[in-house]
Amino acid sequence: xxQNRRVMTExxxxxxxxxxxRDLGGLRLRDGGSTRSGVxxxxxxxxxxxxxxxVALADAYGLRHVIDLRSAGERLERGxxxxxxxxxxxxxxxxxPSDVIGTRQAAREERLAKGDDPAVIxxxxxxxxxxxxxxxxxxxxxAIADDSxxxxxxxxxxxxxxxxxxxxxxxxxxGVEHDAIVADYALTAERIDAVFARLSGAxxxxxxxxxxxxxxxARKPTRWRHSSRRSPTGGAxxxxxxxxxx
Length: 246
Description:
By secondary structure, the chain is of the alpha/beta class. The chain has helices spanning 3-10, 51-60, 72-78, 98-113, 118-145, 162-174, 178-187, 192-198, 210-217, and strands at residues 22-23, 40-43, 65-68, 89-92, 152-155, 221-231, 234-241. The model is unreliable at 211-231 and 233-246 (pLDDT under 50).
């Protein structure tokens, strides 16, 4: 196992009630050194956390701030879970309104029916996320950068798209090497089956075609390309996908 791969693997935080939780510490910086551990975490939905999970996050990690990127509809359906009872500060940032989630799902389904490459559909979706979610991402970055903003955890439902874009923006601003940003994004592929299993009853997921779930989640990016669109951090880092299965 390479040094980089070992660092990536050690960043996973094993929890019984969430499948895609990891620390953004230990990533190589372009100017040398690495990001600090225990400062910013990323995750999928937290409503299924057990008492032991909450203790691990709130006590062992000293978590005091959660940035919830889900839509109002998702939050209403799933709630915060036990972590919401611990006095942790919540910042609710709606990257994609509930009605737009449905529109995006319909557009995916139409493009799949036409035979479009699922990897291209996914990449275009990230550009769309920046177009509609720019103010929300900026709000999230500001909340994390606040003097009392960390240790922080940000999450959406799957911890893949909205969470992945915010992670890429934060890591790029922090000066993390591009290859390390790509590697962090790709780690979700290791847990995506468990993530979708946990979300199988979620209302928003029912409209997402199974083929797109399987194909889009299995794509690994080989590099990042700079979007021509302006992002909350200046230059948007978006995944350029390959066709290697996870």
